[in-house]
Amino acid sequence: MMPGGGAKTDSGRFFEDYRVGEVLRHAVPRTVGGGERALYHALYPARHAIHSSDAFAQACGLPASPLDDLIGFHVVFGKTVPDVSLNARANLGYAEGRWLRPVWPGDTLRSESEVIGLKQNSNGRTGVVWVRTRGLNQHGETVIEYVRWVMVKKRDAEAPAPETVVPDLKTALEAGDLAVPEGLDFSNYDTDLAGEPHRLGDYAPGEVIDHVDGVTIEEAEHMMATRLWQNTSKTHFDGTAREDGKRLIYGGHVISMARALSFNGLANAQMIVGLNGGAHANPCFAGETLRAWSEVLDVAETGAPGVGAIRLRLVATTDGSVGTLKDAAGKYLPGVLLDLDYWALMPV
Q1: For 55-72, what is each residue's pLDDT tens digit?
Q2: pLDDT tens across 265-323, in order?
């Protein structure tokens, strides 16, 4: 045996390995380009104009078409998996998510996370870890930040529980918390090119929109997405990681698919700028057909010319139901995959 020849592979962190206040600098920085846009549009029926056309984006005051907001989210999220959720049992929720700057082709993204909460579960075999993650570009500027919490297995069920710290998080961002991209101007917004005539004033809180279309989730496409975002969670690519032998569809794949489907009825909800909360209510597997509906939760103005903000609940289902989420006991119905609360920018 060579001197110092200990194990060099990494089995990932377990619940007892985390400490509140610890900052995790995640490997590996990733330069994103036009290829990400092409692959994203191949994986999802994404058609929002500001992410599709340089000319449309320039008419809206931007220098070019930024990459889809969820591309930035997926890349930043994927970096965190080896340190945060490699041994996770479930991704439980999101809060306080903000898109602070557009991601442009040629940007290099990296991620870092601060552990902000820990709570061992009563079974003694798992615990919940809260992290605040930041995605930074090559200039050290934060392009996206969010909080998420995951249920992580313990390596040793007998290991002592850490002191419980549960962070105090906002239930929702206010419109004033949102960052509007520099120069964005919807004063001369072209609804014909965008695909629908509906502006902010055409939506009212409480309105429910059925996005009509469905997409059957394919194993090959999911595996391509998991590799594209460098998400190394075993449950997504290793068929032996679950007792049933199934590969769990990455929750971000469901988010992007539902967001793309929402174009039909929300074509002018152009840029995601806030993430208030979210739950992956039930697991998704290949072969299931995903449909989506949205509920308007709020509308607001911003300080940018012609730019408003709309708060939406985006729900993905496998049973085609619209407008229903939970049973009488408050439990998500079995056909609900995703319940996502977000803010988007829309012309007034």
Answers
A1: 999 999 999 999 999 999
A2: 999 999 999 999 999 999 999 999 999 999 999 999 999 999 999 999 999 999 999 99
Look at residue 91 and tell me whether its pLDDT is greater than 90. no
CB 250 within 8 A of CB 226: yes
% of the chain surpassing 90 pLDDT: 87
Residue 56 CA: distances (Å) to CA of 52, 132, 186, 267, 304: 8, 34, 11, 14, 17
Angstrom distance (rounded) from CA 99 to CA 103: 9
Task: Give the list of residues 6+ apart from residue 103 with CB closer than 8 angstroms, or none.
Answer: 32, 66, 67, 69, 71, 72, 109, 137, 143
Q: In what order do the strands lie in the sheet with 126-136?
A: 23-31, 108-120, 126-136, 142-153, 88-99, 271-280, 336-347, 307-317, 289-301, 208-216
Kind of pairing between the strands at 289-301 and 336-347: unpaired
* Nearby residues of 30 by Cβ (< 8 Å), 6 or more positions away: 75, 79, 108, 109, 110, 230
Look at 90-104, 227-241, 251-265 and tell me which has the smallest mean pLDDT: 227-241
Helix 219-228 to helix 34-43 angle (10° resolution) is: 160
CB 207 within 8 A of CB 294: no
Cβ neighbours of residue 187 closer than 8 Å, sequence gap 6 or more: 305, 306
Cα–Cα distances in angstroms (integers) from residue 117 to residues 135, 252, 293, in the given order: 19, 23, 33
**Alpha-carbon distances of 339 from 129, 157, 163, 280, rounded to whole Å:** 21, 32, 30, 7
What does the radius of gyration of the chain's CA atoms come to, in whole angstroms? 20
- What is the predicted pLDDT for the residue at 192? 98
> Coil, strand, or helix at residue 143?
strand
Asked whether the predicted pLDDT for residue 193 surpasses 80, the reply is yes
On whether the CB atoms of residues 69 and 97 are closer than 8 A, the answer is no
Q: Supply the pLDDT for residue 6.
A: 56
| Helix (H) or strand (E) segment spanning residue 42 | helix 34-43
Cα 253 to Cα 112: distance, rounded to the nearest angstrom: 22
Tokens (6 digits) for 330? 């408050």
